[in-house]
Amino acid sequence: MDQLLAMRAFVRVVEAGGFTRAADSLDMPIATVSKQVQELEAHLGVRLLQRTTRRVTVTPEGQDYYAKSTRILRDLEDIDASFNLARGKPHGPLRIDVGGSTACEVLIPLLPDFTARYPDIRIDLGVSDRAVDLIGDNVDCVVRGGPLDSATLVARHLGEAALLTCATPAYLKQYGTPAYPDELRNGHRLVSYVSSQTGRAMPFRFARDGLKTEIKIGHRVGVNESNAHLAACLAGLGIVQTFGYAADAALRAGALVEILRPWRPAPYPFHLVYPQTRHVTHRLRVFIDWLAEAFPARVGRDLPAPGV
Predict the structure, then answer these.
(1) Rounded to two decimals, what is the model's pTM?
(2) Which domains does the chain have, with CATH numbers?
């Protein structure tokens, strides 16, 4: 038995909450992961996991072994990182999760610079607007917008993006151009962004001279992915609120028009987030520092003059 390999397998099963997700994250067959854990239990002479057809639970002995194993694995990573740091060459896989429009319009265009600086780091990029389980999905970090509501996460502020209200010229010709947020209630068609986590439509937010207001009315179309959300607006389905960096190209081309510019809400904050329990490897540290430097200019770049 390779005890170190078995220890890693056991830790991943605990963190992933089961053998299937652990095997996927380790890129191993489920049978191999199961065998490694069984051999580890036999070697220790204790039951680490209770298995049923529905779930896997950790025994008290397993909890103790998990805590001690994670410390050992972090120490090994520290040793590796110290040698990598001395050579100045961080290497290995880095799993990052990011929302759709942020991936397409911000992170991916920036990545050639990062991969040129750090050619020995392999990027595994998950693109989704859903909220991932950083521990269970074995993700090193996520880039997310909005307020943070978890005390178990560490966040690095990356920058802020303008939140614009937009429609196509054809839509405005047909339905008119609202001059005030309340006019959206009068026959206008809204394309709402729907949270993939809660299933609720995000309200349209506005602010002017210290006055904040939200428009919560039934939408004609709701979309739970940011690129598709903007595509629905470009198709003429209605008015959207979207990030300036996402709408930038369409605004410059005249395919979209910003409306209610005097009522733009406060810029939307973005953070890079990772769990408190996640060991910050050398490769993760250089990515955090690089993105914190590169991100603000990309999301805060100048927008074209407002059409309305």
Answers:
(1) 0.74
(2) 3-85 (1.10.10.10), 91-159+269-299 (3.40.190.10), 163-266 (3.40.190.10)
